[in-house]
Amino acid sequence: MSAAEHHRPFDDRRLLVVSTNYAPEVTGIGPYATQLAEHWAGAGARTQVLTGMPHYPAWRVDERYRGVWRMRETREGVSVHRRRHYVPPRQSAVRRALFEASVLTHGLLAPPPGRPDAVISQMPSLAGGVIAARVARRHRVPHIPVVQDLMGAAAAQSGIRGGGRAAAVAAAAERYALRGATLVGVIHESFVPGVTALGVDPGRIRLVPNWTHVERPTADRAATRARLGWREDTPVLLHSGNMGLKQGLDVLVELARMAPDIRVVLMGDGNQRGTLRELAGALTNIDFSPPADAADFTDVLAAADVLAVTQRASVLDMSVPSKLTSYFVSGRPVVASVAGEGGTAEEVRRSGAGTLVAPEDPAALLAAVRELAGDPAAADALGAHGPRYVARHLSREAGLARFDALLAEALGEARPDARSDASRDAQGRPRR
Questions:
Q1: Which pLDDT value is given to residue 431?
Q2: Are 350 and 203 contained in the same domain?
Q3: What value does the CA radius of gyration of the chain take, rounded to a whole number of Å?
Q4: Cys-Cys link to 328, which of 18, 107, 386, 417 (CB 3.0-4.6 A)?
Q5: pLDDT at residue 193 above 70?
Q6: Residue 348: inside a domain
Q7: CA–CA–CA angle 259, 264, 267 (5° rounding)
């Protein structure tokens, strides 16, 4: 028997992963849910996924799935059960509530068949967490929610219309999903106070950081810039990912207005894309580009001079952008226009691959970009910390191993010598 055949720790275990986002989505939470489910299927588990119709980050249902109410498909050994739901083209508290309610209703009415041995939920989705908790309680099996975003805090901090009223409702749903969980995974330690405030014993919280789900860049930078039409003598500031309210991307539009000599590229999609286009007006030094193909995504990131991550000043402890793992892989310096006390700032500081500026301050952001663009050697040196940080802490192998330890512990199979962050609680204490 080969080593690969011997090491199948979850052989014949029946696992249910609940995640509103899943492949073919290539940004945000989808890739993590996908790689996790496929990893466990490869480890011998009979893995099912309950998910929605692909819609992120465009907030439009993928044309291949339009008009479909329910479907089952097999992807890389995983049985994927999709349920139709409402997709709001613009964000408000009411529209978001309708989105969550439609996911919840259809998911509860038509869960995947069979009794799982454990249920794992990805929780930026309130509905997904509630569905997973209900299924786990019905079958009396472990529930392991993984907190990627705190939606109660998000409603209060993101600036969404009606968010203040929605925050209490969202927090109540999170409390229902989390309080009865066997273990709770968090992707960053900055989430621990918020999760604890929802009634979760800190001894049941485990740190399971996101890993980088993209490959390192391989193409020649100059060739990529030429293909994209980026002049060598024009600094390029690039933001990749979702264009939503919490990102506060108007700061990049204002930077472009202040600095016609800098090219600002907003690559991605989201419900604020149209609003940002209107705000940009006739500016000629700002580009709105579709998401890059997976094959050359990191090559495009690496071709930029500086990578931007921005958040509204009010965003503190509800989100750590998944884009950071891809940014770090690219080897380019990051300028983070975010609150200094939040988890995003802490991750940038920890990586050593970027610099922090005050949020919602285009002048401060511009000064940092000019400093890096004016000293390419220093910019290269700063950016080089990113791949090293990924290799030490954010590899796919390390990330999946943490989830293996988390699942094994929940199933009562954890080994005393388990060597992973998941074998310790979020404060670094050995698990009980």
A1: 47
A2: no
A3: 21
A4: 386
A5: yes
A6: yes
A7: 165
